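Forwarding the complex inputs:
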Amino acid sequence: MTSGWWLALVVVAYLGLLFAIARYGDARADAGRSIITPNVYALSLAVYCTSWTFFGSVGRATSGGLSFLTIYLGPTLMCLFVGVLIKMIRISKAYRITSIADFIASRYGKSQLLAGLVTVIAVIGVVPYIALQLKAVAAGFDLLFGAGGHPFSWWGFDTTSLIAAALAVFTILFGTRHLDATERHEGLVTAIAFESLVKLLAFMAVGVFVTFVMFDGLGDLFQRAAASPELAQLLTLEGQRPSTWISLLLLSALAVVFLPRQFQVIVVENVDESHLRRAVWLFPLYLLLINIFVLPLALGGLLHFGGQAADPDIFVLTLPLAAGAEWLAMLAFIGGLSAATGMVIVETIALSTMVCNDLVMPMLLRSTWLKAEKSPDLSHWLLLIRRLAIGLILLLGYIYFRAAGEAYALVGIGLISFAAVAQFAPVLLGGMYWKLATRQGALAGLTAGFVVWAYTMLWPSFARSGWIDAGFVELGPFGITWLKAQALFGLGGLDEITHCLWWSFLANIGAYVGVSLATRPDALEVGQAERFVDVFRYARRLPDLQLWRGDASLHEMHALLERFLGAARARDQLLTYARRHGVADWRNLAVDAEFVHFAESALAGAIGSASARVMVSSVAREEHLGLDEVLNILDEASQVRAYSRELESKQQALEAATAELRAANDRLRELDRLKDDFISTVTHELRTPLTSIRAMSEMLYDDPRIDLVSRSRFLGIIVSETERLSRLINQILDMAKLESGRAEWTSSEVHVADLVRESMATLEHLFREKQVELSSDIPDQLPPVLADRDRLTQVLVNLLSNAVKFVPGGQGRVRVSVAIDGPAIRVAVADNGPGLTADESAVIFEKFRQGGNTMTDKPQGTGLGLPISRQIVEYFGGKLWVESAPGAGATFIFTVPLPVPDA
Amino acid sequence: MKNANPARQRLVALGLLGIPLLSYPVLGLPQGDWLGLPAIFVYLFGVWGGLIAGAAWLAERQGR
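Prediction (whole assembly, two chains):
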C-alpha cells in the first residue's frame, strides 16, 4: 500500500497547484486579459460531475445497469434549450443577480422572505450532496491510506471530519478573498476548469486500464458479463421502470441549472453570452466521455471481485490496486479529489453568499446591533459571515453524513438533493415567462414543494439510517397507512424518486399557479415582472428610471456604499459611474433616479437585491408609487413601443405603395408612348396609298386627253391601292378588336390537316402565278384540336402569302409540314427565301414591321399580319415563332395545343 | 422574444427530437447485440453522440 504521508504530500501539492492556477486566473483578470475562453467556460460547467459521477456512477451501474446515464442525458437535452439559459444570463447581468435565491427574490418584488426561504431550501437540500462528497473522499482516503479495514483516526477525529475541516479551510482561503459576488471569480473558474480536465483524464485512464489491460477490450468484457446471468441483465434495460427513467431525465435536466453551484458557474460566472455557443455541445461531450467507461468499470469490478464483499462505489480505486497499479490508483484518487473539491468549493461559495445576503443580512439590518455599531466599514463583517457560513455548511454536511450517509449509496444521496433543487424550477421558470405570477404564489409553491420533498424524501432517509423510528416510513405516522411517506395516499408501485417528484411537483405547481391567480401583485412586483419577462426588450433600462421617484443626498448614499463595500471599492465604483456620465469629480454627481439605481445595484452585488433595496430606502426618501401608477407607467411604455412599431410598419407600407405607384406611372407613360407611335405609324401607312390614289385621280381629272391605255392603268392602280387601303383598315380594326378582347371567337373541333389542305388550295393560283413550288407533308391521322376555324385559316393564309411574297419567282420552294409535337400540333411553313437576321427575327412580330428594307423597297404587306397571327395563336394557347438565318430561308412555326384528355 | 433567433430555434428542435429518442417507449426497441456490443449501449451512446454532433454543427456554423 502507498505510504500515507506520500499520499498526503501529493494531495497538498495538488491543492497548492490549484491555488497557483486561481491566482494566475485572477491576475490575468485584473490585468484585463481574461483567461476565460469559451472552452474554459464549458469545462467549468463540468463541475456538475462530482464524486457522484467519479465514484458513484460505477456503484449505480453495478445494480441499475445503464440507468445511471439519465443523470447525464437530461443535462444534454437541457443544453439544447439554450434560449432559457441566455434569458437567465441576460436578466442576471442586467440586475446584478448574485445567486439563485437573489434571482427568485428579485423577480417577486425583491422579497427578503422569499430569498430566505429559497436559501433555507437550498442549504437543507444540498447538505446531503455535500455529505456525499465527504463520504466518497473519506472512503478513498481510508482505502489508500492503507489502514486495511481499520478506519483512520487522528486525535479521535475520523477521516470524514478531517476532510470536512480541510475542505472548509481550503474553500475559505480560495473563495472569499473578494466581497462582491457579481465580480466574477475568474481565478476560481479557471481552477474548476482545470479540475474538470484532471478528473476526466484520471477517470478515462482507469477506464482504459481496466478495459484494455485487465480485460481484452470492450467486447471481451461484455461477452464475459453476458455469460453470467446476474451481469447479463445489466446489459439491457429490461427491468427498468420507464417512469423512473423519465423522472431521472427530468430531474437531472433541472438540476444542471438549478443546483446553486450550477447556477453560479452557468449564470453568475458567465463572462460572455456567446460562450454558450461552445458550451452547448462541449459540456455534453464531456459528459459522454466521462461516462463511456462507467459500465465497463462496473462489469470489470463485478467480474474481478465476484463473490467478495467489495464496495462498488470505489471500484475506480480498488480495481487498479488489485492489478498492482498503485500509481493509477493514486491518479484516480486525485481525480476523485478534484471532483469533490470542485463541487464543495463552488457549492459552498454559492450557498454562503446566499446565507450571508439572504438570511444573516436581513436579520442584522433589523437588529439594533447594526445601528449601534459605529464602524463605518462593514465589508469585513460580510466576509466573516461568509466564512462562517462555509464552515457551517460543511459541518451540516458532516452531520448528515453521520446521521444518514451510511445507509445510502452515493447516487441515492445525490438524488435527494436533486429533488430538492428541482422545487425551484416552477417558480423560477414561471417567473421568467409569466407576468401574472405573484410573490404569494411563489411562497406558497416553494413551501408546498419543499414540505412534500422533506416528508417523502429527506425524512425517510433519516429513517432508513435508523436515526429515527423506521416504522414511521413503513407503516405511516401513527399507523395511518395513507400517510406513508413513500406511498402517499396509497400511490405505490413507483420508486421513491418518482414518487417524491410527482407529489412535490403537484403540490408546488398547484400552489404556485393557484395562489398566483388568486392574489394581486403589488407595485414593485409588477415592475420586476415586466423587467424579467421582457428583458430582451429593455435593452436600455428605461422603466427603471421611470419607476423610481424620490430624493436622496449624495453624502448619505456615499456613506452607505462605503459601509458595505469598503472605502476603496466604493470610491472606485463612484469614479467609474462619474466618468461614464462625463462628470470630473464624483462629488458633483446629481442624485437622480439613475444614481439611486446605480447605488442599489452596486449594493446588490455585495448584499443581494432584497437587502440592497432595504438599505437604499433607509437613506433615500422614496415617494412610493401605487400599483395603479406603476401599471400606468408600464402601460405608457408599452404603448409607446406599440406606437413606434405601428409607425414603422405604416412607413413601410407607404414606401411600398409609393414604389407601386411609380411603377404604374412608368407603365402608363410607356403605353402612352406606344399609342402615339401607333397612331403616327397608322397615319403614315394610310397616307401612302391615299397619296397614290390622289395623284392618279388628279392626273385623270386634270388631263381629259389621256389615252385609254394609260387611263385604264391609272384606274387599275387606284383600285389596287383602294383595296390595300381597305385591307389595312380592316386589319387595324381586327387588331384593335383582338387587343381589346372584343373579338368574337367561335370554338369547335378543327382538323388541322384539312384546314392546311384547304388553305393551300385557296392560294394555289398565287403560287402558280409566281411559279413557286408548294409541297406538303401531312400525316393521315391527326387528332382534332379546339379552335376557331376561320381564325386559324387566317393565320395559315397569312404565313403562306408571306412566304410566296418573299421567295424568288421561278425557283422558290415552300413546304408546309404538320406533326404532333408533345401535347400540341405543330405546323411549319418553310421557304427558301432570303431569310432573316437575328434582329429581324425578333422584330417582325411587332406592328408595322416588315421584312426587307422598308425605306427603299415598296412595302409588300401591311405589317400587321404577323402580329395578328401571333395574337390568334396565343389566344388558343399556342406559340408562333420563326427559325431563320440570312440566306437560308425562313421557317415560321406555330403550335396549337391538343385538348387535355378527360381524366 | 422579438428577434427570434433561427440557430436557437434549431437547437430547440434538436432537443425536442432528443426527448422521444432518449426515453420510453423507443428505448425498449434495441435488443440483442449490435457490432458485438450490447444493443442498448450502442444505441444510447450513438444517439447521444449524434445529438452532440448536431448541436456542435448548429451552434458553431455561423454567428448566432
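Chain A touches chain B through 36 residues (CB under 8 Å).
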